[in-house]
């Protein structure tokens, strides 16, 4: 499969500019888009209309926000990895804890996503950088399970449509895309490296309907498409230096970017970008649990309805 450096048209979708936009998610319940700004700890939601992202809501969730995942039921809100735990964010903006602190002191939640079984997979990252963090899955019962240790910067992950293969990026130190076999109970095995990502840091990742992997490459001004075997198939050059993550909204590749740390940002740095591609994607896998409800001060129950 030959590699192509494409000249696809890259468009700026957002009027707003973000310090560190991340983790775009296509919500299959209503077709909306969600994303975060790590620098402000905020979860954003909006719609794509006439080729533009129209913001609708923004909720400050915590100091160090990570990945969001929609719940399955319409109107049931989102789970978000934030600080050292996972919380529920209602459509009314109310933030409720789902788990206690599961990341270690000084660490915080980073990227994540869902699997076809309704689990929310989310990993932590360390500051300063050291390989002692963890990738967890949170089942529909709300209980977190440690799935992988020795992680430094847990970033992009994507499951194939059967849920039997996990593609995963722990950005540092190896800058590689890895794969695991996934058992029905979520246990990981057969860890293997598909490829190293050269010229930048691999960050967020999405999978298309052909099983190809789209990866945002921080500090490379590129999004790259890899085969499931790790072969580089396509490179898209961007006007933003620090793409952070990607989502396929049908055949629109939505790319979040960051302006953080740039001394002379361009107009595209910190924007949401869009590129039309040939093979689309599906909405984000939702979390299979129910929205937690606060039964009394300081306590949380699981809604069984």
Your description of this structure?
It is a single chain. The protein is mostly beta strands and 305 residues long. The protein has one domain (4-288): 6 Propeller (Neuraminidase). Helix content is 0%, strand content 53%. The protein is built from no helices and 27 strands. It has strands at 4-6, 10-12, 21-26, 33-37, 42-49, 52-60, 65-70, 78-82, 85-89, 95-97, 108-114, 120-125, 133-138, 144-151, 154-159, 165-170, 176-182, 188-196, 201-207, 213-218, 222-226, 232-237, 242-249, 252-258, 272-276, 292-296, 299-302. The strands form 7 sheets. Strands 1-22-21-20-19 form a 5-stranded mixed β-sheet, with no helix packed on it. A 4-stranded antiparallel β-sheet has the order 2-25-24-23, with no helix packed on it. Mean pLDDT is 93; it is low at 295-305.
Provide the helix percentage.
Answer: under 10%
* Strand portion: over 45%
Q: What order do the helices and strands follow?
A: EEEEEEEEEEEEEEEEEEEEEEEEEEE
What is the count of structural domains?
Answer: 1
- Categorize the overall geometry: globular
**Largest β-sheet summary:** 5 strands, mixed
**CATH classification, class level:** Mainly Beta
Count of discrete alpha- or pi-helical segments spanning 4 or more residues: 0
The overall pLDDT, averaged over residues, is 93
Spatial order of the strands forming the largest sheet: 1-22-21-20-19
Identify the CATH architecture: 6 Propeller
What is the assigned CATH homologous superfamily?
TolB, C-terminal domain
The quaternary structure here is single chain
């Amino acid at each position: 499969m030959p590699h192509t450096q494409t000249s696809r048209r890259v468009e700026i979708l957002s009027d707003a500019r973000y310090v560190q936009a991340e983790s775009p998610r296509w919500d299959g319940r209503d077709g909306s888009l969600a994303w975060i700004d790590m620098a402000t700890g905020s979860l954003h939601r909006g719609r794509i209309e006439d080729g533009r992202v129209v913001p609708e809501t923004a909720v400050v969730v915590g100091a160090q926000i990570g990945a969001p995942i929609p719940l399955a039921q319409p109107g049931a809100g989102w789970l978000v990895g934030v600080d050292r735990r996972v919380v529920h964010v209602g459509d009314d903006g109310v933030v409720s804890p789902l788990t206690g602190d599961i990341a270690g002191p000084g660490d915080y939640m980073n990227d994540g996503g869902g699997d076809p079984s309704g689990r929310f997979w989310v990993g932590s990252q360390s500051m300063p950088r050291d390989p002692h963090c963890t990738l967890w899955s949170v089942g529909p019962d709300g209980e977190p399970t440690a799935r992988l240790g020795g992680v430094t910067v847990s970033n992009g992950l994507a499951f194939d449509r059967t849920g039997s293969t996990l593609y995963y990026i722990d950005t540092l130190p190896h800058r590689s895309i890895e794969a695991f076999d996934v058992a029905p109970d979520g246990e990981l095995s057969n860890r293997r490296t598909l490829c190293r990502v050269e010229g930048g840091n691999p960050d967020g990742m999405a999978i298309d309907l052909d099983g190809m992997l789209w990866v945002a490459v921080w500090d490379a001004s590129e999004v790259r498409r890899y085969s499931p075997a790790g072969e580089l198939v396509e490179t898209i050059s961007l006007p933003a230096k620090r793409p952070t993550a990607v989502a396929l909204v049908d055949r629109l590749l939505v790319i979040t970017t960051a302006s953080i740390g740039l001394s002379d940002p361009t107009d595209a740095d910190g924007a949401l970008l869009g590129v039309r591609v040939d093979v689309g994607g599906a909405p984000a896998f939702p979390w299979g649990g129910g929205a937690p409800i606060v039964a009394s001060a300081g306590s949380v129950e699981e809604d069984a309805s």
